[in-house]
Amino acid sequence: QTKQITGTVTSKSDGSPIPGVSVVVSGTSTGTITDVDGNFSLRVPENETLLFSFVGMKTVEVPITESALYNVAMEQDVIGMDEVLVVAYGTSKRSSFTGSAQKVGAEELVGTSTSESIDKMLSGKVSGVRVSSTTGAPGASGEVQIRGVGSINASTTPLYVIDGVPMEIGMYGYTGFSTDLLSTLNPEDVESMTILKDAAAASLYGSRAANGVVLITTKKGKSGKTQFKFKATYGTSETAMKNVYQPMSAEQYVDYVNDALIGAYLFWYEPGLYPDDPGYQDAEVLERALQYVQEDPDEGKWGITSPSANTNWRDVVYKKGNTMDYQFSASGGNDKTTFYTGVGYNKIEGIVIGSDFERYSGRINLDHKATDWLNFSLKQMLSHTSQNGYGDQTDQVQGINHMAPLGMIFSMNPTQPVYNEDGTPNQDAGMGNVKNPLTALIGTGERTDQTYILERYRSLTNASVRMQLIPEFAIRSNFGVDYSDSKTRVWWAPESVDGEAYNGLGDHLTYTTVVKNASFIGDFNKSFGKHNIQVFGGYEAEGLTYRTLQANAENYSTYKLPELANGQALAVDSEVASSNLMSFIGNMNYNFADKYYASASIRSDGSSRLGANNRWGNFWSASAAWRITQEEFMGESSWLNDLKIRASFGTNGTLPVDYFAHSGLYTFSSGYGSESAIYTIQPDNPDLSWEKSDNFNVGLDLRVFDKLTASVEYYHKKTRDLLMLVPLTYLTGFETSWQNLGELTNKGLEFEVHSNNIVTSDFRWTTDFNLTTISSVIDKLPAGKDVLKGDGGMYLLREGEAINTFYLPTYAGVDPDNGMPLFYLDPENSDELTYLRELAKPEIQGKPTPDLIGGMTNTFVWKGLELSFLLTYQMGGSLFDYPGYFFHHDGVRLGSMNLAKDVENNWWKKPGDIVDNPRPVAWTSDRPDRWSSRHVLSTDHIRLKDIYLGYSLPKSVVSKMHMSNLKVFVNGNNIWTLAKEDTIEPEVTLNGYRTVDTPITKNFLFGINVEF
Amino acid sequence: FLEETPSGSLPADEAITSVTDLNNAVNGVYTGMIDFDLGLGDFTEPYSYYGGDFIAYADLKGGDLDYTSSNNHISPMARFEHSPESNYSEQFWQMPYTLTGRVNDIFSVIDGIEVEDDEQEQFNDLKGQLYALRALFHFDAARLFAKLPTLADMDAANSGIPLSKEKYHVDFEPTRSTLRETYDFIKEDLNAALGLLSEETNLGHINYWAAKGLLARVHLYLGENNEALAAAQEVIDDSPYSLYAIDEYLNVWGVEGAAELMFEVLTNAAHNSQRNSIGYYTHSGGYGECAFSTQGYELLTADANDIRSQLIEWEEDETDTKGYYTQKYPGRNGSLYQNNPAVIRLSEVYLIAAEASVKGGTASQGKSAEWYINQLRQNRISGYSDVATVTLDDVLTERRKELVAEGHRCWDAWRNGKSIYSPRMNREIDGNYGRAILPIPKRERDISPGLTQNPDY
Predict the structure, then answer these.
(1) Is B388 exposed, middle or buried (0-12, 13-18, 19+ CB in 10 A)?
(2) What distance in Å separates the CA atoms of residue A736 and residue A683, rounded to the nearest whole number?
(3) With an 8 Å Cβ cutoff, is B203 touching chain A?
(4) Contact (CB, 8 A) for A719 and A150
(5) What is the radius of gyration, based on Cα positions, of chain B?
(6) Pairing state of beta strands B291-292 and A736-740?
(7) What is the DSSP string of A212-262?
(8) Cβ B7–A925 below 8 Å, yes or no?
(9) Global ipTM
(10) With pLDDT > 90 as the criterion, what percentage of chain B qualifies?
(11) I want to staple B277 with a disulfide (CB 3.0 to 4.6 A). Which of A972, B218, B264, B273 is the partner?
(12) To which H or E segment does residue A199 belong?
């Protein structure tokens, strides 16, 4: 039995109508949202309760009576302890939720970013969540990590679920030139994101939940007047930190070359560098060395005889970038049908010349209530992105890519001018294969072009239906199809730097992924007396298929037509792979008098990625909460508004990244002569299983003085059966094999404070603060043995040590007597020094995971003016400066690489000098530049991540213009950074490996927001 | 629904069930010699074995070749620049042992193959090829990582290399054998191969004669001159190969199945060592890392009547790579990547016989050292008149001329107790110099602590 009701929601404080209030029948998904005038209408069953909720307001519960009119006045809340959370396979009230989850609403996400990628917007806003922007390449996504490092070799990224359907993320593209699939989403379409952190919140996602879950909910229409929104943003960008990657000046460089050549003479011809060399500190030998330099053995190749310019090539490669973003949306509907439609255009020109990113996206979300018991919805997103760029370096790749823009900055001779006198680019500027970055990076249809284009199409479809069969029981079903198509076209024209060897190379690579997901869930709800029970159970199946197709051609007959047909076919390749998952899920929530809460969940997953002996796994959680303030003995406290304690324990897992890691395989793709060739490429392991984690979480939520909410949580996550790519002796025929070995613990404390410092009728100051401590320590390794991983074994995995600890020799500075570098011979056991890097044993040199991260947002609103800024900070982590290794080469790369600016006047010249860099020795085979503690730098920093100043015109003015809102704003990202090391960008990938890539940018934006 | 297999590969137990499969699997070992792809989906692996690096190694260390421009692909070998952590030591270890692993993986299933009656001969031949390949890989690893037999105590502990005799479990930790055990194993495998291999020519594959030639070379390295001479003589007398004549000498390079080639590894457009191929190293238009050094150039061009002096050209495709280059690797189909490296060819067998003979080796049918040298020179030098005596130095010089850029020089000198002059090091270097051999890669010793490092590292 249902009936139609209507009503108006107003603010208790000033009586103004509140639009966008969620009006839901308790325990169901039947509901609507108030329109712009605060009105709503809804068909409701009898004898139920209406829940009115709105962010920043206290939730109001009103029993449905015989009345048809429900006018409600809402009271301001501090942070809405009772907001409705989107949680795993449903929603929950904040007050009754027993797990650890944090919601970030649209208002916190949009308008405070470059609209580039949603994950970056989480930075600094949620405790326990670490976001790093790893590169400044346009369109690049961040890296999100929830509660430490969940795995050594399997995924450490959370599961992304959009409108209830798991969404494919990942880098699909060309090595060194790719962005994550997340960049296809338009952040403007997002209504909210919920971060699921502990087992109680996340275990329903079972084998994919060990790294936490990010639930994304897209916008919905509201019945009532159709609302139009238009937003335009324009901005510029440049490198966030100006001292990062500055090369040495021409004058200093010439001086350095001189000294390096003297060093070379004393190394290669008449040894005199080290105390036991025959020519050590021998004036005559030194005289001959000086003479050798004056004879200029390479005819001024390095500019040492005739420096003609002082070019800072960083200023040539990095220019000012710009961003533009246009968004248009319309939403509305009636009692039965609501819609949201949005289109967006985002374009970024990167700071590297010739790089850009462009996204077109459209979305339509339709919700329809067919009858009292039948609802269905359809959500459809389409987007197209395209990206022009360059071949950057990827993680742990040896050598510096001469075509990486950063590589170019340093392989250019600073004594050479950018242009010839006739205005053409100087083609003698480079020390290596790249002659001038202007020619190398900008595709102009010339015979020297080297271009990379990535185009993506993505379609996300989500259809769902819900049937309320009886008041206590409903069934719902969700179908999702996620299609993405990433096409990369690489073109190395016949006379380009890399294309010359091929006489032109065209390479086309296509990745297509299709994920199909279906779930069927039955919901049961029942209240009797003060007991409330909510149970659901269901089945879910998901299939992922990816298909690659690659074709390339060389020997082009013309540089004008890059299509493959104009070259000679080189190779073709195709591959298809599937990964399937079958699951059963169950969940139970119980609450007594809104005072005691208990929840339990279970999920059973079967995956095709695992060995036949270990294909199925069960994941479960149990949790409870106690709202102490609901107890009568607490009485009515004047200051303590709410106090809740909650605890949870449960398990979840991580699947292997590789779909077929469990099978020993022969590849058939090879050939020999005119025949086929097959060979073994990996050993088999039928026991290969999930990584399993046991999660414990205890938390305390508190609200005091009606103005401050705080929560404190402690988490402890122990991960077992880590997937380890164990290195094998090559005598096995293999490099590595996947095995489930090892244990790891992540633990830490999280604090969040949300405070309404001052709230008056026309002024508001709020502060949101969060702090997280992280500890990621390895407990157990195969046979207790240290494992060295990464490039050259630079990471140590050792029991009791932090994950991915850097393990390198310790640099002890420069010997002031002779300028030679000093290293500790055996730093773990003695203070003895050596001149030779290769004799020096490694020791632990810090770790990439910081001890402490967090952020603080302050918002000031005065009438129509709003100012907010977000500071993020992190402490206790380090990075490995791989590019810096090339730019502090001590003469080894003389003639192919310039040096970093911090070497200026900071290398040894004469006895007694106390400096950081040793006497340069050209091409020395002693290699003092090889990795050591010199290359491990602190990432401690505080950053003004975001600052926003907006002004909304008074309603009276706006309404005359037939608008409901008009806002102008200016916005800045990464404007200011205080870093311990100011020559390196401290935001780095999670393994702390600074790759040869473009540093992240600071952005200045201004924009206008119109609603009507 | 939960049983998925990839589209491009099969589980090992389904991969090799017939003789055809076995043939393809043997091809999978050969192809690794020139296209060392681990199946990781990389566009190209960054290094090569017979495709380039291994061949360049002995000539760059030997001093007759030198780099013009150093792109640091293989040129650091000319500077003897390698450490336990460097790529060079790891790659030169990884390649022969990985391919031995492939051989052993095939051996582990070979008895389960269904062999039809008319396939028995082919089956035996393929099995023989596997033995011969395993011997060759051990021989190469021994030359790279252990002292040469003539310079060492053959029975000293850890003087040899680890032997890879069977398919190993993933937790296997190898240790080094003695040098005697190493070379005994190599000879054992070669002898096993000889009992199975076909005598027919078989382009790109090891046949009886190639295995015999390699055995002759192994005996020579061991100072077993009688056995070396006997094996070489058998090849010279009975094999279908013949020495290149003067008038064809300039045209046999870049040709598949040329008359001397007993075993060449096949390259084609799809499978080669790309920019790490010997052709790309030995041309100014490539990396230019293997040009003639002054001494190499002077030696080869000393006699204008010697046709080999004409197999050299001045190239200056790029200013920083200009120099004199060998034309042994002209490329096929317009690609410098496509050159089939010769693992063994008949000239070398003559030179093996000559060397064994000059060192006092005897064998039935064996000839004098002069006879072999004269035979070879008659086919190289116009208007040549036979000499009556030759010395060991004459034979070694002839080897330098004939086999330059084919991966022999440093070992030829060192195993005879001679030194080479390294222009980059600006000094004489003999086989006892610590860096004459590579260090055991650090990675491998981290996995197997029982693996003893070479001295001086």
Answers:
(1) exposed
(2) 9
(3) yes
(4) yes
(5) 21
(6) unpaired
(7) -EEEEEE----SEEEEEEEEEEEEEEEES-TTTTPBPPHHHHHHHHHHHHH
(8) no
(9) 0.95
(10) 87
(11) B273
(12) helix A199-202
Q: How far is CA A163 from CA A90, A120, A461, A807, in A?
A: 10, 20, 10, 43
Q: Is A793 on the interface with B (CB under 8 A)?
A: yes
B413-432 average pLDDT score: 96
Distances (CA, A) of A296 to A258, A273, A293, A830, B273: 9, 21, 5, 43, 37
Per-residue pLDDT, averaged over B21-44, amounts to 79
Strand partners, A22: A33, A53
Cα A844 from Cα A827, distance rounded (Å): 9
Instruction: Give residue B122's pLDDT.
Output: 97
**C-alpha distances in Å from residue A93, one per residue of A58, A59, A973:** 12, 9, 33
Which contacts (CB < 8 Å, 24+ apart) does range A957-962 have? A962/A1012
Average pLDDT of the segment spanning B285-302: 95
Query: Pairing between strand A450-470 and A374-389?
Result: antiparallel
Interface residue of A302, A662, A732 to substitute, partner B, most B CBs within 10 Å: A732
Higher pLDDT, A448 or B78: B78
Put simply, the chain B residues between 53 and 72 with a CB less than 8 A from any chain A CB are none
Mean pLDDT of B442-449: 91
The phi and psi torsions of A56 (rounded to 5 degrees) equal: 90, -5
* Token representation of residue A480: 């999702």
| Residue labelled with tokens 């159709």 | A226
The answer to whether A46 touches A64, Cβ cutoff 8 Å, is yes
8 A C-beta contact, residue B277 and residue B266: no
Residue reference for tokens 């879950």: A213
Cβ distance A726 to B85 less than 8 Å, yes or no, reads no
**Per-residue confidence (pLDDT) for residue A80, from 0 to 100:** 44
B416 to chain A nearest CA, in Å?
29
Nearest-CA residue of chain A relative to B24?
A677
Chain-chain contact of B97 with A730 (C-beta, under 8 angstroms) = yes
- Other C-beta atoms lying within 10 Å of the C-beta of residue B386: 11
Cβ within 8 Å of residue B396, ≥6 positions away: B355, B412, B413, B416, B418
Tens of pLDDT, residue by residue over B112-140, are: 999 999 999 999 999 999 999 999 999 99
**Cβ of B420 under 8 Å from any chain A Cβ?**
no
**Inter-chain residue contact A730 with B11, CB threshold 8 Å:** no
For residue B73, the distance in angstroms to the closest alpha carbon of chain A comes to 11
Residue A340 burial (C-beta neighbours within 10 Å; 0-12, 13-18, 19+): buried
A502, B329, B358, B409 from B400: Cα distances, Å: 33, 17, 17, 6
Contacting residues of B for A729, CB less than 8 Å apart:
97, 168, 172-174, 444, 447-448
DSSP designation for A826: S
For residue A567, the model assigns a pLDDT of 93
List the structure tokens of A282.
């021998």
To the nearest whole angstrom, how far is the Cα of A735 from the nearest Cα of chain B? Answer: 8
Contact B172, A732 (CB under 8 A): yes
> Which chain A residue's Cα is nearest to B163?
A731
Segment 826-845 of chain A within 8 Å of chain B by CB:
838
Q: What tokens appear for B97 in the block?
A: 């042992």
Q: What is the pLDDT of residue A552?
A: 94
Enumerate the β-bridge partners of residue A943: A872, A977
Q: Give the C-alpha separation, A540 to A583, whole Å.
A: 5
Q: Does residue B46 surpass a pLDDT of 70?
A: no
Q: Which residues of chain A have pLDDT under 70?
A: 13-14, 55-56, 76-82, 109-116, 296-307, 393-398
Tokens of A609: 């990625």
Task: State the pLDDT at residue A297.
Answer: 58
Q: Measured between CB atoms, does A555 come within 8 Å of chain B?
A: yes
